[in-house]
């Protein structure tokens, strides 16, 4: 079969022949239809993700750990967890029985495969207990997941949505998706701090953070009250690390602000995940959740893997 094959850590996958997977006991063959290539796939291949060791220890191997495909009986499913060295970026892959779930047959597989990113937007509710009317700040709103999160916040009934990015043209697009105010983070710290303070209205209730690093350090500084009193705590949901994988967290930023920090996985189980997934599918069918998809054939993987011009569109590979 044809596959995208990674030969060295940090390299670029090449389109080439690879032996067909043969399912063992308790495994199922998947005929791959669409795969969204995300930052996490590149981080695993680069050896910089916490799950990298298993993958990079099996080279040559096929990147990407989930996608949309068909079971041998033709049922369309979202699948995950392929058996290494097999990955999703191939004509066929092999996964443990049960490591898949049916997906709607009436929605384009290339669209379905992007919806996992929309579920991160639902973390304002599943992780942070968002209720309608609250103010939501989306850090990193010009990316694919951030643009979806702005729309999810609006659809869930946010009272005010503030969105950050580092490119004014893209920030204008984010405003059209539903942000009430936008902030460009590519400014000196004191200017950024003032912008966070000016845009917060009555205060940020929930922050959905795809950036971490400096923008969030500056934000935390603005949450520290200037006098003793009872503040309204901000709940920060950590989802991504596009700006940096770590940040400096001063003691007073926690002690006096009452800030609460959660991981995006908090509150997720099969039931809440199923509910979140059903909701984003319903919004997508109704045309209420929009996003850009850049479709490329598997044969174009070498060029596509290195693209940096996607500006909020998800790269989807079609084997
Ligand atoms: N936990 C999950 O399930 C999950 C799911 C999806 C994504 N994520 C994570 O969330 C993050 C965003 O994912 P994505 O798919 O939306 O990525 P994306 O489409 O590539 O967008 C990245 C975003 O981060 C911004 N950015 C990149 N480098 C930056 C820097 N040094 N300083 C400030 N901003 C920077 C980009 O701004 P420009 O537009 O100006 O480049 C853009 O807004 C990633 O860390 C990803 O791994 C997590």
UniProtKB/TrEMBL annotation:
It holds the Pfam family ADH_zinc_N. InterPro entries: ADH-like_C (IPR013149), GroES-like_sf (IPR011032), NAD(P)-bd_dom_sf (IPR036291), Zn-ADH-like_protein (IPR051397). SUPFAM superfamilies: GroES-like (SSF50129), NAD(P)-binding Rossmann-fold domains (SSF51735). It comes from the Bacteria. Residues 146-210 form the Alcohol dehydrogenase-like C-terminal domain. This is Zinc-binding alcohol dehydrogenase family protein.
């Amino acid at each position: 079969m044809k596959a995208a094959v990674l030969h060295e850590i940090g390299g670029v996958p090449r389109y080439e022949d690879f032996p067909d997977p043969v399912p063992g006991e308790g495994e199922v063959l998947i005929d791959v239809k669409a795969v969204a290539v995300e930052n996490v796939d590149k981080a695993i291949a680069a050896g910089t993700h916490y799950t990298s060791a298993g993958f990079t220890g099996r080279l040559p191997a096929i990147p990407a750990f989930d996608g949309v495909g068909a079971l041998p009986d033709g049922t369309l499913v979202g699948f995950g967890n392929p058996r290494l060295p097999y990955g999703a970026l191939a004509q066929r892959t092999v996964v443990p029985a049960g490591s898949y779930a049916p997906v709607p047959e009436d929605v384009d597989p290339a669209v379905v495969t992007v919806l996992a990113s929309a579920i991160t937007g639902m973390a304002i509710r599943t992780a942070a207990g968002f209720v309608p009317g609250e103010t939501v700040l989306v850090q990193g709103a010009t990316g694919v997941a951030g643009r979806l999160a702005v729309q999810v916040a609006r659809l869930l009934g946010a009272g005010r949505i503030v969105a950050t990015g580092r490119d004014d043209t893209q920030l204008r697009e984010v405003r059209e998706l539903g942000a009430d105010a936008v902030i460009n983070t590519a400014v000196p710290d004191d200017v950024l701090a003032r912008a966070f303070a000016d845009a917060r209205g009555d205060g940020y209730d929930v922050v959905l953070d795809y950036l971490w690093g400096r923008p969030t350090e500056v934000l935390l500084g603005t949450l520290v009250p200037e006098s003793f009193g009872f503040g309204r705590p901000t709940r920060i949901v950590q989802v991504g690390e596009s700006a940096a994988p770590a940040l400096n967290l001063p003691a007073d930023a926690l002690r006096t602000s009452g800030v609460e920090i959660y991981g995006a996985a908090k509150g997720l189980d099969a039931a809440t995940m199923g509910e979140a997934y059903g909701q984003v599918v319903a919004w997508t069918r109704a045309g209420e959740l929009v996003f850009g998809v850049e479709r490329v054939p598997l044969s174009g993987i070498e060029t596509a893997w290195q693209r940096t011009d996607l500006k909020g569109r998800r790269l989807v590979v079609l084997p």
